[in-house]
Specification:
This protein is α+β, with helices and mostly antiparallel strands and 165 residues long. The protein folds into two domains: 67 residues, Alpha-Beta Plaits; 86 residues, YajQ-like, domain 2 (Alpha-Beta Plaits, 2-Layer Sandwich). It is built from four helices and eight strands, in the order βαββαββαββαβ. A hairpin with a 5-residue loop joins strand 2 and strand 3.
Length: 165
């Protein structure tokens, strides 16, 4: 009987790296000359499920968001984990924007992954298991091809591969 190899597709990020990117962003915001004397800063949301960006204009919020994106890219975290779709709020000459982190695969995202893999690689077996998709095959080469197919597909959410067996 042939061995079966597998890996899991998840949408997650390394929390320690996210913490490091946050700390580096705070340091850069504190040292930037154009932010001196302004309310520009970032804070964690409750339980570190996202970040709160505070500034005095939409342009300043975008500048801070660009800093965060650069720090995430330097740490190997996809910027697709940032949900920037929420509107910003204005009060007392400050603009606040909450940016939660996107984690986990819901059913629609998992179905997109499985249908793509079934169309491209019919020999591979896929199985949705809650917040992840298990991809299995008897050949390691097919699994590597599946990883390349998923990386080439430009999903609107971040993908990671874990649990190689």
């Amino acid at each position: 009987m042939a061995d079966t190899y597998s890996f899991d597709v998840v949408s997650d990020f390394d929390k320690a790296e996210m913490n490091n990117a946050f700390d580096q962003s705070v340091r850069e915001i504190d040292n930037r000359y154009d932010f001196k004397g302004t309310p520009a800063k970032i804070d964690w949301l409750a339980d570190k499920t996202g970040i709160k960006i505070i500034g005095n204009s939409d342009m300043q919020l975008e500048s801070i968001l660009d800093i965060i994106r650069k720090k995430l890219a330097a740490r190997g975290i996809s910027q697709k984990v940032l949900d920037v779709s929420k509107e910003s709020h204005t009060n007392n000459f400050q603009i606040t924007k909450e940016v939660p982190f996107l984690q986990g695969l819901d059913q629609t995202k998992a179905k997109k992954i499985t249908t793509l893999l079934r169309e491209q690689l019919p020999k591979i077996k896929t199985q949705i298991q809650g917040q992840e998709v298990r991809v299995s095959s008897t050949k390691k080469d097919e699994l590597q091809t599946a990883m390349h197919v998923l990386q080439a597909a430009d999903f609107e959410f971040a993908l990671n591969f874990t649990n190689f067996r």
